[in-house]
Design brief:
Elements: E1 6-8, E2 12-18, E3 21-29, H1 33-46, E4 52-60, E5 66-71, H2 81-90, E6 96-103, H3 110-128, E7 131-133, E8 137-144, H4 149-158, E9 162-168, E10 172-179, H5 183-187
Length: 193
């Protein structure tokens, strides 16, 4: 049975040393590739003298496709990016980027050693993050009577949703956001126009 999809909401960091090489792992939540790159650029600017910044991410696209990307950052092919991506896949995490800084300590680790070091560093960084179930959110518009506005606000609070916008004319046109699984129960409570 596969694990349910998870994500994180707060960054986390970890650090360890192996054969004099220092590894710093950072895990960030991100909804887009652009956000992932911004986090990695910030991490790189915090460590301008690092030898490598390898990374991996898994980001869910609007169409539901999960875009995966990994980069070895100059390490031998397959020894950094892929081992970072593996624990993201193993925990079924999405909308997460993991960056690993390496300061070379003078002792070569070999391809097997590098693969293990990057994999362990990624696993440790990911373990520091607080996982949360991923919930698909939807936003949509509906028209209701003025008299139903208070009821709508109450129901949104119960369903973990929020009112994003409201426009008043002869009816109230609202834009709401809530977990997709709760959309039909909300719509069933209101006569929409």
């Amino acid at each position: 049975m596969s694990k349910s999809i998870q994500t994180i909401h707060h960054p986390s960091n970890t650090e360890f040393e192996i054969k004099k090489s220092r590894f710093i792992g950072a895990t960030y939540p991100c909804a887009t590739q652009q956000q992932a790159v911004q986090h990695l650029n910030k991490l790189a600017s915090e460590h301008p003298n690092a030898n490598h910044l390898a990374f991996a991410w898994r980001i869910r696209q609007e169409d539901g496709f999960i875009h995966e990307c990994c980069h070895d950052a100059g390490e031998p092919s397959g020894t950094a990016g892929r081992p970072i991506l593996a624990p993201l896949e193993g925990e079924n995490l999405i909308n997460v980027v993991v960056g690993l800084i390496r300061y070379f300590g003078g002792v070569k680790l070999g391809t097997g050693g590098l693969t293990r070091a990057y994999g362990n560093a990624a696993k440790m960084a990911i373990e520091q993050a607080a996982f949360q179930p991923w919930v698909e959110i939807t936003a949509f518009e509906m028209e209701i009577e003025y008299s139903e506005l208070q009821k709508l606000e109450y129901q949104l609070k119960k369903l973990h949703g929020q009112l994003l916008d409201q426009q008043f004319s002869d009816k109230v046109k609202v834009t709401v956001q809530l977990p997709l699984a709760k959309k039909q129960s909300l719509l069933g409570l209101f006569k929409t126009y």
